[in-house]
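At this stage, I put together one protein's amino acid sequence and its C-alpha cells, which the following lines show:
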Amino acid sequence: MYPALPNGQYVTLRHRVVAGQNDYGNDTYAFTEVQVGPCSVQPTTTREAVSFTDQVATNVLVFMPYGTDVGYLDAMIIDGVEYEIIGQPDGWISPFSGHTAPVRVSGQIVEGASQ
C-alpha cells in the first residue's frame, strides 16, 4: 500500500506540556518533538502591518495523517521555520462511507517588531 501523499513532506510537531509551576503559581512548560508525515504543506497568506510597525505575518495550512495527536498549544517546524498553531486542528470522518480525512492544521509565524 502506498502512502496517501507519496510526495508529501515530514513536519516536526512540538508538543507543549505542563512541566510544573513557578514561584508565582504559573504553569511552566516543556516540549517534546515528533516527526509526522507525509503531510501536505500549503502556504496560504502573508500580510504586512504598516501602521507604526515593521511586522509580517505568514500563514500555512498543513494536512496531517488522520489520527495525528496535535493541539492548539503545539507548534510545528517546517523547513526549519517554527509556526504556532492557530485554532483547534480538526479531522473528519464521513458519516456516509466512514472514510477519514487528514487533520487540517493552520499555522502562523509573525516576524518583526512593533514600536
Observations:
- The chain is about 0% helix and 70% strand.
